[in-house]
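Appendix C reproduces, verbatim, an entry submitted by the partner laboratory led by Prof. M.T., so that reviewers can inspect both the input and the predicted structure.
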Amino acid sequence: MSFNIFVIDSDPAVQQLLAQNLGQAGYTVQCFGDALSALDALQRGLPEAVLLEWDLPGLSGLGLVRRWRAAAATSELPILMLSSRCAEQDKVLALESGADDFICKPLGPRETIARLHAVLRRRRPSGMPGALQVAGLRLDPHTLSVTAGDRQLNLGRVEFRLLNYLMHHPGRVHSRAQLLDQVWGSHVFLDERTVDAHVGRLRSALQPSGLQDAIQTVRGSGYRFQSGSAC
C-alpha cells in the first residue's frame, strides 16, 4: 500500500526535498503552501500522516494542529511538526498542542523518514490489544475511552497513553526517563518535568472516579499504577 502523506510548508525547496525523498521511500505525497489549501484537500480524504511547518501564512501550523485535534475526524491524525524554532519550550508547546513529533530544520531526509515510520508504527491499529480493566477503570484503546463504572472520564491524548502504559504494568515503578521513552518515544527529547505535569493532569482527570490515588509517586524513583493500597 502506498501511504498518502501531506507536506504543508510554504518553502518550495522543502516541498521538493520531502516529495522526492518520501516518493523514493514509497509514499504518495501531496504538497501545500498554506493551511487553507490543506484543509480544502482534507475534505476529499484523510492522509496517513502530515508533515507540517509551524510558520505558515495565515493560519499557523500550531493553530492547525489544535484545530485538527479538536475535531473528531482528525483527532488521531499523525502530525509531525517541522520548524527552525528548536528551543525546548517550542518543542514542548508543539507536542503538548497535539503534534506527535517535532523535527528541527534544516531537515535530514533520512531522519525525517525514520521519524515518520516511527509515528506510523505507533498509530498502526493491527495487533492492538483489547480493552483493559484494572482497579475499577476500563481503558479501551480502540475507542480511546476510559470509564469508571458508567462514568466516562475526559483524558487528553498524552494522559491516555500514559495511563494505558501504567495500567499494563500495575505495581511496577517507572522512572521519569522510562516514561518519556515509552509514552513519548525515545526520539523525543523533553525535560523530565514534562512527566510530572502530565501525571498531575492525569490525576485531575481521574478525580471524578475517586481513583486519582492509583497513580502513586515513589519518592526518588518515579511513578506506578497501584490497584490496591500500598505503603
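The first strand starts at residue 4 and ends at 8. Additional entries are available on request from the coordinating office.
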